[in-house]
Amino acid sequence: MPPALCMRCNAQRAVVKRPKNYHKLCRECFLAVFEDEVHHTIISSKLFFPGERVAIGASGGKDSTVLASVMKTLNERHNYGLDLVLLSVDEGIKGYRDDSLETVKRNAVQYEMPLKIVGYDTLYGWTMDQVVETIGKKGNCTYCGVFRRQALDRGAKMLEIKHVVTGHNADDIAETVLMNLLRGDLPRLSRSTNIVTGGSSSDVKRSKPLKYAYEKEIVLYAYHKKLDYFSTECIYSPEAFRGTARTLIKNLEKVRPSAILDIVRSGEDMARLTPDKNENACACDDEGSGGCGSATTNGTANEMEQLEAKLSKTNDHAALETEIKTNGQSSSDGAVKLPVRPRRQKEQAAAAPTPLQKLGKCIRCGYMSSQDICQACTLVERLNKNRPEIEI
Ligand SMILES: [Zn+2]
Ligand SMILES: [Zn+2]
């Protein structure tokens, strides 16, 4: 079979079959199309203003490394006029974060961006290794999620930056939409689809420029751009429910490649139908697993590892070897509008425990919070009660 030509330039050999629409593209066209799509997301959502200082939440993983690379490329190509900085959180996980931070340090040199690292040990007096030693692996992601969110905010504050971009991709958003759908939590579902979050629960704005980018394409982009990233998953087990949602989405994607974007768009449509716009409610959960890279179940971790292994064996001359096989058909059946289920009071209370909040300051750490004691300080207090008597 003769090698397929790129559908875009009709000149070069296609080396990528796009997971979301099966378009066969050469390396240059794939990189260009990927970058153009992120540019379109940025422009259509008016994410930045000229001269804005923006911190890129950088974990060393594929998502944030691709984000940093694309942000640098687009900032130069389209004259966004942004002042870009890498901001990393050191959770204190030996054999995982210490290694991935080395990657971020190299990225800082490669992309000529300043790097700021904020550590859980300095901020909270606890590393995640110590947290897990104390409470066990179960539920550790809750601690990590709350700590990370505040750590990124505090890091941004130290840099006097008011906008943090994170590497959340379409798969992450689809997972969160599905999780909230399964929980029956439409208000949180609607918040999770926003490209910009955190505006009212914090004075640091958060946004997700890779919101519409497929995880598989991010892996392909990193490979074809030869980016330096760290591909080991967090050694502590991810939130079980998210793992389940993730597996479900990966299975859906096998029979319907557009499923991921369909779920994201359905989430956006549902957000428009949801009257409850409790913007002040905690958005921590909406942020997903954040810097865990992608919290994955074993099954899906293997899938991405296989893709990465396959890519590393591939050479650029082999046509379509990076093709991702899916056996489904993409059909365009009309979107079905879901009725909004009236909530029972009890459910409402469970889903949005703090409906009417006014933003004040945590009496412990002075950080912005809608409660007297912020979530991070509450967790630290719980940990301190359990701190082993004998300390090294
Ligand atoms: Zn081409
Ligand atoms: Zn606090």
Count of distinct structural domains: 2
- Helix/strand-derived category reads alpha/beta
Mean pLDDT: 82
Outline the biggest β-sheet. Answer: 6 strands, mixed
Q: How far apart are the first and last residues' alpha carbons, in Å?
A: 66 Å
The SSE string, one letter per element, is EEHEHEHEHHHEHHEEHHHHHEEH
- CATH class term of the largest domain: Alpha Beta
Name the CATH architecture of the largest domain.
3-Layer(aba) Sandwich
Low-confidence stretches: 279-291, 293-299, 316-336, 352-356
Percent of residues in beta strands: 5-15%
| Number of helices, counting only DSSP H or I runs of 4 residues or more | 14
Q: Which strands sit side by side, in order, in the main sheet? A: 5-4-3-6-8-7
